[in-house]
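Researcher: Quick one. two chains, 222 residues in total.
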Amino acid sequence: ETVMTQFPATLSVSPGERATLSCRASQTVDNNLAWYQQKPGQAPRLLINGASTRIGGTPARFSGSGSGTDFTLTISSLQSEDFAVYYCQQYINWPRTFGQGTKVEIK
Amino acid sequence: VQLVESGGGLVQPGGSLRLSCDASEYSFSTNWMAWVRQAPGKGLQWVANINEDGSEKYYVDSVRGRFTISRDNAKNSLSLQMNSLRGEDTAVYYCVTGAWSYGYWGQGTPVTVSS
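Model:
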């Protein structure tokens, strides 16, 4: 099983600032990585797949990078609606596995 | 795309429950489908996946042999039969589309396993 580790667990950021979230895989996943956003009481929403491809409707302030085992989700200028929990997920092998999440909170 | 889950509820340990997901405005029969769950206050856990015609199925180890994923393409419906339920199966269960990244999610149906 590929273990996905996200850090930090919580990120405190002021609106307008940049947020950098990290995700590490226990073995290479090439670029088979997705990022999701989940707000309280809502289902997750797919933001990025292929490590760096924004899904239609994902704002341009969200960018993904990385390949192999180390990945980053960057939110260039946090808006109020971006405060949420973010999950990474690998889909190179079974079982599909998610990271434990990073909570982005208002500083 | 609309995915509407149903069938969740309270069940005793060792009991069974069948979840359903009705899909609309979606090319159901030509796409993989899956179930993903989220325990209270916890992260996401992939549970099972099924291919377009139901001939391929994958499960997380913790549910293999107890849960069965299935689909009825004529009815645009996905199911999860859950047997021998345990306390650790308590979660919100989401019906999702895909097998790689998961593009569309239902609103989830809660399952509570408790005596």
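The first strand of chain B starts at residue 2 and ends at 6.
Researcher: Thanks, that's what I needed.
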